[in-house]
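User: For documentation purposes, I need each entry recorded in a consistent format: the amino acid sequence on its own, followed directly by the corresponding structure tokens. There are two entries in this batch. Please keep commentary to a minimum and don't merge the entries.

Assistant: Recorded as requested. Entry 1:
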Amino acid sequence: MTTTTAPRPTAPAHRRTLARMALVEGRLLLRDPSVMFFSLLFPALLLTVLGLAMPWADQPYDAEDPFLSRISGITGYTPIVLSLAIATVALSTYPATIATYRQRGVLRRLSTTPVGPGRLLVAQVLVNLVALLAAAALAVAVGLAVLDVSAPSQPLLLLGVFVLAVLAVFAMGSLVAALAPTAAAANGWGMTLYFVSLFFAGVWLPLPIMPDVVQDIATYLPLGAASQAMTAAWVGQPFPTTQVLVLAAWTLLATPVAARLFRWS
């Protein structure tokens, strides 16, 4: 008696599956007002409030630094706002979304299909990357038009670093998404990482005025490296080689680990 095995899905079939999943996730994002707000509008709103309300907005970002003394406080803070926007989605809403799917049994049903955890995580990252790119463009446009933010010195480098930062911070968020059994657990784990990451990104205090040891630690964390690299691209500092390598390493190492540790239920 002969037996037959089902043919393996081809590469085009894998791409079509990923595209359909990304389309579905995009539609779900558009239907959720809170996710839409934090993904698209939050960076521009936060930057506007800081630029109009904070007395330091038009002061030098760092009077002792030869580069940063030539830019305003709100210009120096703009890359930090972009980093904060990435972290808000990657470490808060994204892990909670995957954990909610797990809690409601959606992932268990998906586990009986050819859809793998890697493809699900990639679809989520792609959708949120598009949303964050739109949010960053809106925030930068508002900053340039309303707040007198200086234009970035190296816009292409800034764009490349921003995309790499999204991938790296989402890789960290994917570790939470892969393991958190419930939405509450994902919120707890994600928010812990979120607030620690914000400290090392310079949200509470600008990194240039922090102790050297804090700046060194920040360089090797995804959000800290993102903040430093985007600031360097914005103000025209030398190419942030170390930070770019750190972001690439987080992306290449954490993403497959998250897919391997992924729990369907």
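Entry 2:
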Amino acid sequence: MTEFTIRPATVDDVEHFARIRAVVTPWLGASIAAQRSWYLSAPARARGIRLCAEVEGQVVGFATGGLNVTTSQVGASALTLLVHPGFRERGIGTALLTAAEEHLRSVGATQLQCGTNDDPKTLAWAERHGFRQGASERYSVIDPRVLPPQPPTPDGVTVVSLAEVTPEAVHELDTIAFADEPGDVPYDGIPFEEFVVKFWDAPDLDRYSSVVAIVDGVAVSSVLLDVNSETGWAMSGGTCTLPAYRGRGLAKLLKSVSLRRAAEVGVTAAYTSNDYTNLPMLAVNDWLGYRVTDRQWSYLKDLT
């Protein structure tokens, strides 16, 4: 069996992480700058851990995680653990998981959540290590240059770019509108300062193709879009609408506007993800013409 070493990761390892992500989770095509921002923007209160697995000096796997600071659920934690397919079944993933779990328990985690690709070997590995299957998420892609006709804008609604609104308005909308998002762990928002660092100032956030619906001076719905201008890749950073304004077609309208603008800035593959129970958003994306590419599962483990 090939020998490997586990060591603490540094920000200089982000390019290696990106190379592994491109193989294991190709829908996450964020720029290197964005992935470096993911690494650096984790708040200290998450008590995070970042590990690398090396074989003969080559990074072949990594684990990054910490306490989930976006939820009021006590003891919730999350972990991303990826091993390059060419180096699996050698104990590398198990070693990364064992080290990460030890750290997470030490900082108070009682539950661990991981995202798992929908393939039999990966699912079986997770279950052997004590995880149970939770919610599932659909990944899909569209060429924004080919779209159905844009819906009309309702009376009283103004569509503006993200560049025309304040971060405070978007943070308030995010906190309220995502509170009932489907999933295994509730989302309770993050402090404004962390929102600015993690989302508002993110390198890939495109302020032209990200759009907001305004009604009576209030931001009531939004579509955020991350764009890697070097590759033509984009990923939805979230579509949300205040509960009182749902059912009016705002998500369909904003996604139609956002995708057209994405095409203008050179996007040729726009990805999105949705919980399989989120039927309204799935219907919007099906209407737009998204093509399903992948499925991921949420897997949960009791760390007590």
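Summary note for entry 2:
The chain is about 30% helix and 30% strand.
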